[in-house]
Specification:
Layout: E1 3-11, H1 17-27, E2 31-42, E3 47-52, H2 55-68, E4 73-76, H3 82-94, E5 99-102, H4 120-127, E6 133-134, H5 138-145, H6 153-163, E7 170-178, E8 181-187, E9 192-197, H7 208-221, H8 226-242, H9 258-262
Parallel strand pairs: 1-2, 1-4, 4-5, 5-6, 6-7
Antiparallel strand pairs: 2-3, 7-8, 8-9
Helix pairs in contact: 1-7, 2-3, 3-4, 5-6, 7-8
The protein binds adenosine-5'-diphosphate and ligand LCLJCK34.
Catalytic activity: 4-amino-2-methyl-5-(phosphooxymethyl)pyrimidine + ATP = 4-amino-2-methyl-5-(diphosphooxymethyl)pyrimidine + ADP; 4-amino-5-hydroxymethyl-2-methylpyrimidine + ATP = 4-amino-2-methyl-5-(phosphooxymethyl)pyrimidine + ADP + H(+)
EC number: 2.7.1.49, 2.7.4.7
Protein name: Hydroxymethylpyrimidine/phosphomethylpyrimidine kinase
Length: about 260
């Protein structure tokens, strides 16, 4: 079984972050491990706060996973501060793996700030050049490029090309629902590839981004090509959104088990 390590924040309401990553790893038949960078105890009605883990604890978690079990692929999510990014980069350099999937999460759907503005520069300079693939949505792409969020397919393509300058081997910009399709744009420095699916008309999409990046990491670890891994991840998340969980209040969670249950 391939061994996957997510370095991300815990999302107490269960849809996103570490919780989404581990649920997705289980669904994709890989062995999941975690380094928790922070605990996000927010939902749409309460703001209990964001509790950062000390750098020493982040390092200890990383070694607990790499020394005892070993890691085939790393996925990063919420890293919050420049200090945490620097620590994670140091750890990744110490333990090289074939694939690092960087999901540059910035703002959660519940409104939580998951990356400090001052940390964006550090992410661009230190983390993105180490990524096999970076997976921003169009809002994160806009922040990284210091522009307005793209509204059209043509603009998403320009974003993917511009983001490639930050040094990841591949870039995928997730359009989400745009031009009445769910379009993602993959760029490898030469070729643009578009991935389409029908849009699901729902607000219950919390965790879609984390689950997409985790599925991508799992499939790359299993030896799939980038295009195959994106295809599988798009289908995995489409089912997760189509069969999303509405808990009766606010934005509901994607259903991480939906592809297994309903396809
Ligand atoms: N309403 C939707 N219907 C179908 N696919 C969607 C929808 N919203 C997002 N997606 C797809 O889900 C994946 C994750 O999207 P992303 O934009 O990262 O979600 P998030 O809103 O959590 O950031 C992408 O492949 C995207 O195209
Ligand atoms: C702790 C934590 N990490 C990441 C996210 C962002 O999740 P994502 O799947 O990209 O999008 P939403 O859940 O915000 O829809 C998060 N919310 N919490």
């Amino acid at each position: 079984m391939k061994r996957l390590l997510t370095i991300a924040g815990a999302a107490s309401q269960g849809s996103a972050g570490i919780q989404a990553d581990l649920k997705t790893f289980q669904e994709r038949n890989v062995y999941g491990m975690s380094v928790i960078t922070a605990t996000v105890a927010n939902n749409q009605t309460t703001e209990q706060g964001i509790f950062l883990r000390p750098l020493e604890e982040i390092e200890a978690q990383f070694y607990a996973a790499t020394e005892m079990v070993g890691v085939d692929t790393i996925k990063t999510g919420m890293l919050f501060s420049a200090d945490i990014i620097e620590k994670v980069v140091q750890l990744i350099d110490h333990y090289p793996v074939p694939h690092v999937v960087v999901d540059p999460v910035m703002i959660g759907k519940m409104g939580s700030q998951l990356l400090e503005n001052e940390a964006i520069q550090t992410m661009k300079q230190l983390l993105l050049p180490r990524a096999t693939i970076m997976t921003p949505n169009r809002y994160e792409a806009a922040k990284l490029l210091d522009k307005h969020p793209s509204q059209t397919k043509a603009e998403l393509i320009e974003d993917a090309k511009a983001l490639y300058q930050f040094g990841s081997t591949y870039v995928i910009v997730k359009g989400g629902r745009i031009e009445d399709e769910a379009i993602d744009v993959l760029y490898d420095g030469e070729r643009v590839q578009l991935f389409h699916s029908s849009p699901v008309h729902t607000i219950h999409t919390s965790g879609a981004g984390c689950s997409f990046a985790s599925c991508l990491a799992a499939e790359l670890a299993k030896g799939k090509t980038i295009s195959e891994a994106v295809d599988i991840s798009k289908s995995y998340v489409w089912y997760a959104i189509q069969y999303a969980l509405n808990f009766g209040e606010g934005i509901g969670s994607v259903n991480h088990a939906a592809k297994r249950m309903y396809s």
